[in-house]
UniProtKB/TrEMBL annotation, chains A, B:
Keyword check for Acyltransferase: no
Name the UniProt record assigns to this protein: Riboflavin biosynthesis protein RibD
NCBIfam families: eubact_ribD
Keywords: Metal-binding, Multifunctional enzyme, NADP, Oxidoreductase, Riboflavin biosynthesis, Zinc
Pfam families: dCMP_cyt_deam_1, RibD_C
SUPFAM superfamilies hit by this protein: Cytidine deaminase-like (SSF53927), Dihydrofolate reductase-like (SSF53597)
Gene (UniProt): ribD
């Protein structure tokens, strides 16, 4: 299933509004088919893996999301494809909350006599398909806020100079994050100061530069889409994963509305002292309100910088 | 040797201007003597361990610093005590830079036919006796700067409220740090706002509350010592380990003069946004100057908070 999740990760940021599913078919300890949701959402991972495998009699199929139960003009339901293919067993990570499937996919497989195992690495799958799940459950994209700071939380000198705080490895990592998101947003101040390209500058991934959004009530420049408020992200079609890159005002605007689900914190081992803060006014009136919201999900060194990934803890989420 | 270092750590913050040495005597796989420099500097670790062990014929003696070669009115030279005791072997972590010993201790032991092994865990020993070494080599105390911040580097809300950012475990850890330092310093602003007690509030360690220093050109209140500038720490007798606890002005004053050797960074998993910064103006004009100074030496979780320990990298240090 871990391998299927890695396949699913390939599509992240390019499949919206479809989930970025991964699928692996194994028989006699040998992988005979691999699939992942293709850009734009079709073919689905299962269809791709089945085509590769051919005959799947006696095989086990690992799939990161419940196979869809609904036909569409763009292709047959995956549950029907799988029933027709007749594998020995299907192992699934996560149920599909889409009401057109939600349990119906599994039921159809079992009714056809195929053994189904559920909930293998479900938590990891939820993290990998966070954008799709956020769209289904909260009606808006999954939002990652990226901050690159000194140890004392500064993002620039008092005059705005910020090149470079973090090193080459941290910046490369941030570009991989760009490559796996549907859209990137910056605030008006950052746009006016830096006119950032926000493209993916990594060999082999240049074609994966996401859509560019500007948090602004004014008209958007060419090649950009303006959104007037953080809440307006709910209206963005085909954006399931959103990366907020700066600056302090945009970060604060999203935090104030509790619209940040994941925090990517790149920290360089240096002190700046007086300088520009990473986050503006988020409307915090009492420290007690600030506690219990963020949980450290991952941390690693990137050269001499440290990356920490925090996830927003939501009740029942 | 690790056990000897742990014994030496017991004296940290209470032996200045003597080093906080640890000593362990082992024969036939059994510990027969343990010693550490006692409060005020006497007895020395070796003398204490030898007295406990009695006859050390055939034993190995682990000691974290080269045994002293100079007699004093307060006691005999440890090198002479060891020569008289005639152990089989002495294993040593660090040479003593004090010119009255510097190599003479080892030479005297070897001349008496005792085998000496040097440099075992020397780096760890240097960390444990950082205060003594700083005094010997830089002519001033070893300075630790403590910061307790949010993920975005804030130490308080805009109005100054800071209770509590970090949790109980982080605060208890900070009290252990207090118990192993000779003196604690705060700035005038912190004193006026909080009138902090700066004592050790941990069961069993109440008696280890260090001396209190105020960074101020005005007269010190009762129970406090005023120092007019960070450089003036060189004149403080019997302070080998200094802990700078706040606020942003005092932190900046010490950083501006490059007088911070170690950074204790307690970070709570929360965001504050607009609020008070941890560090004021440190006179940084170019980000390039800020790089290469700090190296992560240790990190651990304290409840849901994270502690990071950074050490100042000094050329040749």
């Amino acid at each position: 299933m871990a391998a299927a999740l890695a396949l699913g990760a390939r599509g992240r940021g390019r499949t919206a509004p479809n989930p970025n599913v991964g699928c692996l078919i194994v028989r006699d300890g040998r992988v005979i088919g691999r699939g992942w949701t293709q850009p734009g959402g079709r073919p689905h991972a299962e269809a791709m893996a089945l085509e590769q495998a051919g005959n799947v009699a006696g095989a086990t199929i690992y799939v990161t999301l419940e196979p869809c139960a609904h036909r569409s003009p763009r292709g047959p339901a995956c549950a029907d494809l799988l029933v027709a293919a007749r594998p020995a067993r299907i192992v699934m990570a996560l149920g599909d909350p889409d009401p057109r499937t939600d349990g119906l996919g599994v039921a159809r497989l079992r009714a056809a006599g195929i053994a189904v195992t559920e909930n293998l690495l479900a938590h990891e799958a939820a993290r990998g398909m966070a954008g799709f799940l956020s769209r289904q459950m909260l009606g808006r994209p999954h939002v990652t806020l990226k901050l690159a700071t000194s140890l004392d939380g500064r993002i620039a000198l008092p005059d705005g100079r910020s090149r470079w705080i973090t090193g080459a490895q941290a910046r490369a990592h941030a570009h991989v994050e760009r490559a796996t998101t549907d859209a990137i947003l910056v605030g008006r101040g950052t746009y006016d100061a830096d006119a950032p390209r926000l493209d993916v500058r990594l060999a082999g991934l240049e074609g994966r530069s996401p859509r560019r959004l500007l948090l602004s009530t004014r008209e958007a420049p060419e090649g950009w889409t303006a959104i007037a408020s953080p809440e307006a992200i709910a209206t963005l079609a085909d954006v399931d994963h959103l990366l907020v890159e700066g600056g302090a005002g945009a970060a604060a605007a999203f935090l104030r509305e509790d619209l940040v689900d994941r925090l990517l914190l790149y920290r360089a081992p240096l002190l700046i002292g007086e300088g520009r803060a990473a986050i503006g006014d988020i409307g915090l009136h009492d420290l007690a309100e600030a506690h219990g919201r963020w949980r450290l999900a991952d941390t690693r060194m990137l050269g001499s910088d440290r990356l920490e990934v925090y996830e927003r803890q939501r009740t029942g989420g």
